[in-house]
Amino acid sequence: MSSNLHLVQLDAAWHGAFAAMADDYRAAGESRYDKAASDFAAFLAELVRARSPDQPPGFVPMDTYWLSDGAELLGSIRLRHRLLPHLEREGGHIGYDVRPSQRNRGYATQMLRLILPLAKSRGFDRVLITCDADNLASARVIEKNGGQYQDQVTSERTGKLVNRYWIKLT
Quick one: pLDDT at residue 170? Predict the structure, then answer.
């Protein structure tokens, strides 16, 4: 793993690296970034809008960062500025994903480690993170970063079991 890992916010200069990451997802049969890749300028504008305190009902302001090794984008992590009841149940303050070809290499653990100081600088004393109960890799990422298991709920969207963890920010 590169020692040059850092979080970045996307701008037009990242277009090629983003397209390569979107292709990686597509090759793995995942459509996560297909729409964004088809209109990168609109996607960048949406990322900026998502940071605004003025959000439509059911949404909260959110910062999106990307893990980079200097040239390549390895994954994405989102920090929600506050929680609504549905996010307290499932979703939490932080969500992340790692591009398929780079999974199981510790990048999710590093992304979460890097975003925790940003959450603290926003005034959080602790953050809620959730993951599907059968996503053992994500549970390990959360626990490696100090996540303390709170409980398990059933997703109202999928019907799957969801584990909820809190990380205290020191």
Answer: 83
